[in-house]
Amino acid sequence: MEVTFEPATAADAEALVQIQIAAFHHDSVLYPEVAPGGPPGYDSAEQMRTNIAQHACYKIVHGGRAIGVMVVFDHGEAHTHLDVIAIDPAYHNRGFGTLAMHFLEQAHPAARYTLDTPGWALRNQHFYEQLGYVKVGETTYPDMTLFAYEKRRG
Predict the structure, then answer these.
(1) CA–CA separation, 81 vs 149, rounded Å?
(2) I want to staple 108 with a disulfide (CB 3.0 to 4.6 A). Which of 30, 80, 99, 150 is the partner?
(3) Domain range holding 10?
């Protein structure tokens, strides 16, 4: 499977936002009790341009087109946080997410990786746990609960 991970540019912002919208809205298909939506700014090209300017932001490319996006925060002290991973639903269940997570760990060597995922997102939780992430906490908001996951190396 040919896939590359390329630094995103401001010119990619619109396309990457469309991928995020498709991916996050697809959750309402998998979990009918969940309304379409996503994290704050998921549908904003301006927010994507900010992420591209301020953080490590990658487009996941297959067959010459962007099929996914990753936004990675470097929190220093060997701590990398995966803020967003979104893959076009047409490419789900084909191993691209696993390849992206392996890329993350190779491109951003750290002792500690963290991420958050909604409490209702059982598929995401299973995916992260298969990759060695462990649930370490949860935060409840008025409209949802986020589970915190962590993976330690070394």
Answers:
(1) 10
(2) 80
(3) 4-111
